[in-house]
Write a structure and sequence with these properties.
Elements (H helix, E strand, L loop, with lengths): L1 H20 L9 H16 L14 H15 L13 E5 L7 E3 L4 E5 H6 L3 H16 L2 H19 L4 H7 L11 H16 L7 H11 L7 H5 L6 H11 L9 H10 L2
Parallel strand pairs: 1-3
Antiparallel strand pairs: 2-3
Helix pairs in contact: 1-6, 3-5, 5-8, 5-9, 8-11, 9-11
Bound molecules: zinc ion (ZN).
Length: 264
């Protein structure tokens, strides 16, 4: 009587799936899966230099050290759940026209030089980095995949597929790095908590969004195409910083301006 058992397994999994689906934070994947998917995406990115022109680290050590210093400050706040499990590696993408930054699952962070040049001060860059770190640490990509692929993935697992099969099935390039508005809101909130635990002015992230919005009718900055505005973003970020009574005032504006000149 194998068939009914299988059917009951499916029904059981379906019930599990529908229960989990009602909980926004459910994730069908393990943190290890996030890391492996990130490793795979990193390899894809590094094998496509025309699409992703990585700024050579050896020739730009000062600027890499500077950005890594900010990332380390954020990682050392004691608030990162996967600090030791994920890679937390930064690469700069050499394109002065692109105002964007993104992160893969497992913590590979990419920042376009266009965004670095566009920003005015270190707290703004720290805000963007905190936001990217938050997306990876909150495991938004795999949670998003869990929501989209949930039923088919559950059935695949029920049919005997292993995590490795799934990894092979889901091409890394198919993973969307565009997040939902609710994940954007969550990443903004965590970013503020991270910034609040440092000496940085915690609403530096709001400063960045204000600057983007003041661009008005110019082209839509790429950042907003992959990180859609969840609504009243600047207000909410400022309110979070005020609610948390964040004390930091550091902007390092002059150091930041000096650093930008290293890029030219
Ligand atoms: Zn985002």
């Amino acid at each position: 009587m194998k068939k009914p058992n299988t059917l009951f397994n499916y029904i059981g999994l379906f019930v599990l799936f529908t229960t989990l689906y009602s909980c926004a934070s459910y994730n069908l994947y393990t943190p290890r899966y996030d890391q492996r998917l990130g490793d795979k995406m990193k390899r894809e990115i590094e094998s496509a230099p025309l699409k992703y022109p990585i700024l050579i680290e050896k020739e730009n050590q000062r600027i890499y050290d500077y950005v890594n210093g900010i990332v380390d400050t954020l990682l050392n706040t004691g608030l990162i759940q996967y600090k030791n499990e994920f890679a937390w590696e930064v690469k700069l993408l050499d394109d002065a026209e692109v105002l964007n930054a993104f992160v893969t699952p497992g913590g590979y962070i990419y920042v376009y030089t266009g965004l670095i040049k566009y920003l005015d001060s270190e707290d703004q860059l720290a805000g963007v980095l905190a936001h990217e770190i938050a997306h990876a640490d909150l495991r938004h990509a795999s949670r998003q995949m869990s929501q989209k692929n949930s039923l088919s993935t559950v059935l695949l697992v029920a049919g005997g597929a292993t995590g490795t099969d799934l990894l092979a099935d889901i091409g890394a390039s198919l993973v969307s790095l565009k997040f939902s508005r609710s994940f954007e809101k969550e990443a903004d909130r965590m970013a503020i908590r991270l910034l609040c635990a440092t000496d940085y002015q915690a609403d530096g992230l709001a400063g960045f969004f204000e600057k983007l919005e003041s661009n008005g009718n110019n082209r839509l900055p790429a950042f907003l195409s992959t990180h859609p505005n969840p609504g009243k973003r600047v207000e909410k970020i400022k309110k979070s910083a005020a609610d948390l009574n964040c004390q930091g005032t550091e902007t390092n504006r002059r150091t930041y301006q000096r650093m930008k000149r290293w890029l030219q």
